[in-house]
What we know:
Elements lengths: L2 H9 L12 E6 L6 E11 L2 E12 L2 H13 L5 H5 L3 H4 L11 H18 L17 H10 L5 E4 L3
Helix pairs in contact: 1-2, 2-5
This protein binds FE2/S2 (inorganic) cluster.
The site of FE2/S2 (inorganic) cluster has 12 residues, from helix 2 and helix 5.
Amino acid sequence: MSDSNLQSALSNPQNLGEMADADAVGTVGSPDCGDMVRMWLKYKDKDGKKVIDKASFQSFGCQTAIAVASLATELIRGKTKEEALLMSAEELSAPLGPLPPMKIHCGQMVEGALKAALEAEQGTSSAHMSAPSHIGPTLADSLNAAGKTAGKIKIVLQTS
Ligand code: FES
């Protein structure tokens, strides 16, 4: 793993924070370490195709998860849902170089949050594209709220 790329991703994380007008939200928790990542997506039409306009994330995770999530939100901009679904944890974390074995699940957690957000949006009608209003201020609150409410939030517990 490249320390300089990790440091630059951490010192200036991109797209950190909730997105109020998101079209979809995905949250994943890792049973390996108890960390969580949530990702928000907003789409736009470009040349007749629906592409990711922007993405943001929130992480209660380690530094690697934050760095990969930051990179991922940049890498997926302009991609279609299908293209983004094909992106692996290795691709999302590629600028950091190969992750050490102890950190592989960190990238996988980000990939999981991205896929959960991509899949959460599928099948929802355009009349209900705004983010659910029951999202709490923390991921833990959100998980509790989402557990009680059927909505666009998809929560996946990864089995690595
Ligand atoms: Fe768990 Fe990195 S140690 S996400």
